[in-house]
Every structure is written in C-alpha cells, then in structure tokens.
Description:
Layout: H1 3-18, E1 27-36, E2 48-49, E3 51-64, E4 69-74, E5 77-84, H2 98-108, E6 117-123, H3 133-149, H4 155-169, H5 177-184, E7 189-194, E8 199-204, E9 210-216, H6 224-245, H7 260-266, H8 270-295, H9 298-314, H10 321-331, E10 336-341, E11 349-355, H11 359-374, E12 379-382, E13 390-391, H12 393-401
This protein binds alpha-D-galactopyranose.
Amino acid sequence: MSDAQEMxxxxxxxxxxxxxxxxxxxxxxxxxxxxxxxxxxxxxxxxYVLPAALTLGTWLLVRPRHDGVLRFGSSAFxxxxxxxxxxxxxxxxxxxxxxxxxxxxALADLGVRIAGGDFFLIGNLPHSSGLSxxxxxxxxxxxxxxxxxxxxxxxxxxxxxxxxxENGFMGVNSGIMxxxxxxxxxxxxxxxxxxxxxxxxxxxxxLSNSQFIIMNTCYPRGLADSKYNERFAECxxxxxxxxxxFPTLTCLADVSREAWGAASRVLNGDVIMRxxxxxxxxxxxxxxxxxxxxxxxxxxxxxxxxxxxxSLRDDxxxxxxxxxxxxxxxxxxPGCLGARMTGAGFGGCAVALVERDLIPDFVxxxxxxxxxxxxxxxxxxxxxxxxxxxxxxxEAIELWQS
Length: 402
Ligand code: GLA
C-alpha cells in the first residue's frame, strides 16, 4: 500500500470520530507541500523561484453542512474550532483553523461561498519547517471550497486567494511562491516561476545520478513571522531608495547583476545594502540554475545552491545556527553536490543535492555530524516531486470500500 493510501485510511478513521455519519457524503482533497530548490526571498521582490511540489502533504476530508456552521478538526491539534460562515474573522484562539478560514474569507470576495461543513485535516508534512505546510492547507481548502460550492475557478485565482489569506487574514507579507508551487506542481518537475508576471516554465528534474534530499533540522522556527515581515519591510525600503534615482523600477528583482554597482551607490545603510544584494544576486542565480537544470548540469547547480546559502547566511541573515550546522555538515560529506536552507529560514529544513549511490551514507554521516554539533536529531525525506492540489474523492471512496 502506498503512503498516500495509508494516509487516506487513517484520515477516514479520524474523520468518522470527528464527524460521525455516512461515508458516502464525504469528499477528500489533497495538496502537497513544496521544496524550494533555489530562489529564496525573491518572490515578494518580483524575482525568480524554482520550487517543486512534494508527494508529502495534507489531506482534507469534508462533510458538507447546510446550517451555516464551519467546524474544523486536525490530527495535529486536539482543539476543534467551530465558527459561523457569516462571521469569518481572524482570532488567535482559533489556531490552525485560521488558515482554512482565511481561504474561505478570501474566496468569499470571488463569490465562492459555502453553506457550512465539517473539515478535517491530516498530513505527513512536518509543520512550520519550511516545506509550506500552511500553503498546503490553504490550497487544499481552496480546491475543496470551490468543489463544494460547485464553482469553477481558474487555478491561478485560487492561488492568489490563498496568498491573500496569508497576507490579509494571517498578517504575513509572504509572496506567491508557496501557493503557486502547491497549486501548480507536476510530478517529476520543478517550476521556474517569475513572480512578477507569474510566467513559468515546468522543468524536468533530471540531474544525472543525483537526487534532492530534504534535511529537517527539527529546530523550531521561533519568531519567523515577525522576522519575515522585517525582511519584507527592509526590501521595501531598498526599493524606495532606488526608485528615488531610478523611477521606472517596479521591483528589486528588476535590478540586474550588471547594474548592482550603480544601485549599491544609491542604497543607504549597510543592512539595506546587504538585503538588496542578496535579492539581486539570488535572482540571477535562480535564473541560471533553471538553465542548468534544463541542461542536466548537477555539479554547477550544486555550486549555486551553496552560494545561495552563503548569501542567505551573510547578507540576508535568515539561516541561524541549526540551518548552518546541517548545511555545513552536508557540505563536508562525500556525495554532496550542493546544499542550502529552503523556505523562509530561521530553522526548519534545508535541501541537498546528493549522488544517488551515496545517499544512505550521506544521511547517516550528516545526521551524526549535526547531532555532534547541536545535540539535535535531524530527519531526512526524499525530495520526490509530486502533482499539485486536487480532488481525490474517487480514489478515497474506492479505497474505503475495498
Ligand atoms: C516563505 C514564504 C514564501 C517565500 C519564502 C522565502 O516560504 O511563504 O512566499 O518568501 O518564505 O523564499
């Protein structure tokens, strides 16, 4: 039995405890997490990113209701949350339920409204670890809500609604990368996305005899949201300073590497200068990495991953001791072609490109080195890429009836 089938069976048991009744009315949805291969903190600056959707993710089981009540349960949190569909506001005490609720709030503006439902979330994605567990919940909810409402919407509109939930409901100024990767992912491919235009290229993940391995520091991300918003604000400051001299500039990623010399003379203050330098050079690295992926050049791709981590550590300052320890452990281990933090940073996961034959030794050695340095036990997942958010009701029903 596949991992996905096992999750669906577990989901059924947990759901029937949460919402007893007929199984035939229950609908099931899945949305993956994502790993970003390169292009970090470039999305909200209009730049390039290169994420891939994972096979790990979130299953959302739903029983429709018609009484205007939205009930949320989750296998990860014991609390259940119940709110009225006509009173969707962010409340701290609603915890995890704020994510799906935020999506319903954003969808209501697009005319997608549901009359209630029992929603249960279960997944195999580590939480708050840089693999987009929140975008996974949001996109599962977006697909579920449109299906329940019987409304057809363009996928990109659901992606934008999920990002709006994050920005306008949760109060995090995140870019569009996570929702886009989770919504548009394709098995065996990464997406080279230009965030300013949403134009993208779906690139096969063929890097000769190497594979992406995700390394979880198991170090919690702490004040990630406030630090994230701080970086967002610093980039806005850098852009405003540049626009005073280059008025046609619309985003930081519009500044080319070649224009950096002139731009750096305009920027005021060491911190702002380093934040902008990261964005501009990371953007160039990401575009180059996309071309190297197309050419299947694993060695050169790995070098760009290393340079990306150094820039995130020194200029953007979003790595921290745990991420640096795991990435440096990977760098010093045979078979590693490149390694870097992935996602927002401040803890969570890193990703390494590793020669396939050496993966078992790599995992053992990095785990050992990391434990020696931090006292923490790392977890490793294979970075297999999967398809984007979807309705899985048919396969669930078939499995549950067998
Ligand atoms: C988080 C955000 C994304 C992106 C990354 C950093 O995952 O949700 O929008 O900014 O951090 O690249």
